[in-house]
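Quarterly update from the structural biology core.
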Amino acid sequence: MARTLQDQLLNMGMANKSQAKKAKDTKRKQTKLRKSGIKTEDPDTNVQSDIERLRQEKQERDRLLNQQREEDRARKAGLAEALQLIQQHSTKAPKDGSMAYNFVHDRVIKTLHLDRATHNQLSRGQLAIVILQPGYGLMADDIAARIEEKAPQRVIRIKPEAKPDEDDPYADYQIPDDLMW
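Predicted structure, tokenized:
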């Protein structure tokens, strides 16, 4: 005669009497509730919902990780493009110019010695200062604006002086900014 699975597990020692009694009581309660019309939760649906929840969490983690990787790739590509633009379009700042041009880099005042034409272009905002690895270079302001979008730490742009208001009472008294002391 065929024995139940419960009897077989008890005889092999894989389960004890308390486990068998607990399983029997649980099954009896479920059948009683089912007969009375109350829906019981099927343990398989709980497992399925847990599996689905874990799968969705893993997909969300993977999506965030991929998004972060794409942002890193885009940032590195932007930096590489900025370095390429700097290498192609910058000229090394001359060291033997007759006029000193002072600017601020990392809260430190730096000085470039330029000729008069370059000094005028730089103070009007037509040129920008580019930070090269061993020093500084000069480049056109429109190209520097493109570099500044991708690597703002590599460009020092000089804003041209604002034109005074028409209502300014001191408009007739211009203050020269290129005094030689």
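Residues 43-89 form the longest helix (47 residues).
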